[in-house]
Amino acid sequence: MVDSLEYNTGKIYPGFRRAHTKGICVAGHFDSNGSGAALSTAPLFVTGTVPVIGRFNTGGSVPAGADADQIFHGLGLRFLFPARQEWRMALDDTPIFIVSNATDFIALQIASKPDPSTMQPDPSKMKAFLSVHPETQRFLDYLAKAPTPSSFANGTYHSINAFRFTNADGATHFVRWQFESETPFTAIDKSTSSKLPPNFLFDDLLQRMHEAPLRWHLILIPSNPGDRTDNATIAWGPGHDRVDAGTLVFDQIATEENGHCRDFNYDPLILPKGVSRSDDPLLPARSAAYAVSFERRAIEGPRPDAITLQEEKGAAQ
C-alpha cells in the first residue's frame, strides 16, 4: 500500500507521511458526559475530562501542495488515559471510503497515477478500474455532489470503519462514530477555490483558535440489523440511535515542527479496553500501512513541516 502511494505520487518526500502529508498539530481535552458507558467500558466514556492531541490534515502526498488542490479533510486524535492506555483515531470528513480493501486501494493508486504532461490520470485506466469497482464510482459521485467544508473547524469527521464496543455487562455493539462541529457549516465555492491562498485552511484554523476554542460533539451510532460492518464503502441507512458522548475541545495549536503530533501515527487499531476491531479488512491494512510509513520517515529523519515548506515556496516565488 505504501509503495503504491509512492508510485502514484511519482516522488518520495523524505521525512514526510506518505499520505495526508500536510497537517498541523492541535491539543485540548474531551469532556465526557458518561452516556457512552452504556455501549463501552472505554475510559473515554467515563464522566470526566481526558487530554487529547490531534492533527488536522489535507489529503495527498505532496508537502507543499495548495489546500484547494486537496478536497479531503482529515483529523487524527490521540486520547491518553491512565494505566498506559490510549485510543488513536484516524477520521475523514466523508462518511464512506473510496475502496473496501487493501488490494483495491493498491489497484486504484496504480490506475489513478497522474500523467506528468497533464497531471491527470489516464482516462482509459480509470475507466477500466471504475467499470469493476462501482463502490469507487459511488464515492466519486458523492464527492462531486456533497458540499465541501470551507474550514477544518466546521466539518464533521467520521470513523469510516465500524468497531466492536463492549459494555460493563459484556454486551457488544458494532459502532461507527462522528465528531460534529458546533461551528456553523459553510461550504467552499469549488468554482473559485483555486484562487484562494495556498494555506487558506490552515491560516483559517490558526485565526479561529487564537480567537476561541473549537468544539465538536462525539456522536456514537450503533448499528442496526443488516448494516454492513465489514465494508467502509457502504453508508448505514437512516433511523439509527445517536448517543452524544461528550465534547471535544481544541484550545492549543502549533506547527508539526513545534507541536507534538508529528512523531507518531494515528493507527486506528491502537484501542483501549472496551473497544476492538470489527471484521472490516481495511482496519488491519490501515494499521500496517501506517506503521510502514512511520518507519520509513523515521529512518529518513524529520523535515520542516509542510506548512513551513509552502510558505518558503511562496516567498521564493
Description of the structure:
With 317 residues, the protein is of the alpha+beta class. The chain has one domain: Catalase core domain (Catalase HpII,  Chain A, domain 1, Beta Barrel). The chain has seven helices and ten strands. Strands 1, 2, 3, 4, 5, 6, 7, 8, 9 and 10 form a ten-stranded antiparallel sheet that branches. A hairpin with a 5-residue loop joins strand 6 and strand 7 (172-181). Helix 1 runs parallel beside helix 2 (102-111).
Arithmetic mean pLDDT: 92
The structure class reads alpha+beta
Distance between the termini: 34 Å
Largest sheet: 10 strands, antiparallel
At the first level of CATH, the class is Mainly Beta
Overall shape: globular
Question: Which labels suit this protein?
Answer:
10-stranded antiparallel beta sheet; 7 helices
Chart the SSEs and their pairings:
Blueprint: H1 2-9, E1 23-32, E2 48-58, E3 73-80, E4 86-92, H2 102-111, H3 123-131, H4 134-145, E5 157-158, E6 163-166, E7 172-181, H5 200-211, E8 214-222, E9 243-254, E10 275-277, H6 282-300, H7 306-316
Antiparallel strand pairs: 1-2, 1-9, 2-3, 3-4, 5-7, 6-7, 6-10, 7-8, 8-9
Summarize the structure.
The chain is of the alpha+beta class.
